Structures are given as structure tokens and as C-alpha cells.
Amino acid sequence: MNMKKVLSLLAAGAFAMFAFAGCGSDQAAAPAGGDKQAKVLKVGSSIDFPPFEFQDEGQKEYQGFDMDLIRAIGKEMGREVEIQNLGFDGLIPALQGKSIDVAISGMTINDERKANVRFSEPYYQSGLTMVVRQDEEAIKKFADLKGKKVAVQIGTTSAAEVKKIEGVEIKELNTPADCFMELKAKGVDAVVNDRPVNDYFITKNAAQGVKTLEEKLTAEDYGIAINKDNEELQKEINAALKKLKENGEYDKIFAKWFGEKK
Length: 262
Prior knowledge:
Elements: H1 2-14, E1 28-29, E2 40-45, H2 65-77, E3 80-85, H3 91-96, E4 102-103, H4 111-114, E5 117-119, E6 124-126, E7 128-133, E8 149-153, H5 157-162, E9 169-173, H6 176-184, E10 190-194, H7 195-204, E11 210-212, E12 220-222, E13 225-227, H8 231-246, H9 249-258
Parallel strand pairs: 2-3, 2-4, 8-9, 8-10
Antiparallel strand pairs: 1-3, 4-13, 5-13, 6-12, 7-10, 7-11
Helix pairs in contact: 2-8, 2-9
């Protein structure tokens, strides 16, 4: 998966000036309060997709947006959350075999998967977004890129999609970091990449002098996958997710990983 490759590069040290690595072990997160034994919510995730799920050096628990979100959902449901690290291709079979209750792993909702599992309401919309310099006024949407220079990571969906825009001069570079450095050096007018790559880079590195534009060139929704037979759990997950969005907890989790919610 293209985006998994891009985001894994971020966590593996693709940014020479900002490094973070992964090691450690799994954990269970229990809901607050009470001595009653909470029913366990067994969660599967492929822990190789930062900033959604990864294991940071020196941390016992799995980290990431998805991890914080599913723990918050479990707490809202009054369920203890146990997270298993599974290969991405094994998540749907694990749901079908009922060895896990839900899977959360940056999983795009599509018709092929919906034939095999249920999905929660979307909790994150990915897609390609654009970053420009803070003082850039001539570029406000993708249509404004005609006649401009754009940096993309070589071999990515971003590169393929930007090539479809007429009149754009494309500069293909090795890593997202290279693209941002080229933008700040004024070698290009914009950077196009997956939304979480752009937002996470800016948030984690406190990048100054750049801004992300709201328009998306493509869009795809991520959802929490649930066994096809478990309509009741789907309703519970959706109710908890709705509550987190209403009480502001979702926005706090989002801001932690991607900056202020757009």
C-alpha cells in the first residue's frame, strides 16, 4: 500500500533532521473506575503505519491516532481494550474467524471490503493535499498549479495524480522531507502528498513558514472494521464515536497527531 510505505518512512527516520524509531510490547487499556470486570474489546491492527499506529522507542504501549481513538472508544463503551499486532492482510480473516472483535489500521472503506465486514461510520478522511509557503497567495486550489513547480515523492500516488494536471512542472524527490526542504528553499511552489503525511510532518516538526490547503485532490474514508454478523457492536462503536465527536475528545486526539482539525 502506497501510503503505508510513505508513512513508515517517516517513522523509520526518513527525515534526517527528525528521528523516531519503534520497539516494545503490547498492552491493554482498561476503562476508568469500578471493580467490575469489563468485557474485553479485542482489537487487531497492523502496527507499522505511523502516525496511525506504531511502536515508539521506550514506549510499552502502541502509539498513534488509531490507538488513541480506539482506547477512547473502548472507554466510552466501558470495555477493556486489548490490541493485537497483526499483518494488514490478516485483519479481515481474523474478524471473520472471530479471533478479534474490531480492526482499526488506517483501513479504507471500499465495496470489496464491505462484502466481507461491516464498517463504522468514517472516522478520518485521507486523500492528497497540498502544502505551500505561508506567504503564498496565488495558489489556493489545485487548479492554480498550472504553470507552477510542484514537488512529489517519486513512485507515489501523488506523483501519478499531479501528472494528470495540465501545465504543471513536476519535481520528483526521494522522500517527503526532501519535498518540504525544496519548498522552503523556493525550488518549487507547492508539495503534494497524502494528507496525513503533510499534516503529521508539520505538526511533529513544528514546521514554520508553510501551510496546508484544505482542498483534497482525491479522498478516501477510513473506518473501523467489524465482523459481518455483529450489527450490535457496529451500533455501539458508532454511538461511542459520535459521543467522542460531540464532547470534543475526538478533536483533542486529532490535534495531537495532525494539528487543529480542519
